């Protein structure tokens, strides 16, 4: 999965997003343990420091926390926190560009809604 996304994202960011994705899909539930940096580094054949950087990013965001001597766990409320952050990012990254382009080429709000409906049916 890593580096095959066609994106120029650092591996540690991909690790972080992969864990967030697993939380959103309920593969890893709140208060459950996440894979260790050793497990991640072996599975993805990456440097443990790189895996650790991805994990630490989630710690800094308050998504996961450390239980001393046991491992890293998903924080209660993490799924909702991730969803809200991703909704904001989606709006800033995609929707504003789409709306700007739509206005430029004369697509109305109603036309855009219709296009979304037609596309989501595919």
UniProtKB/TrEMBL annotation:
The keyword DNA-binding applies. The lineage of its organism: Bacteria, Bacillati, Bacillota, Clostridia, Lachnospirales. One of its GO terms (molecular function) is DNA binding. It comes from the Bacteria. This is DNA-binding transcriptional regulator YhcF, GntR family. It comes from Pseudobutyrivibrio ruminis. Keywords: DNA-binding, Transcription, Transcription regulation. InterPro entries: Tscrpt_reg_HTH_GntR, WH-like_DNA-bd_sf, WH_DNA-bd_sf. Residues 9-77 form the HTH gntR-type domain.
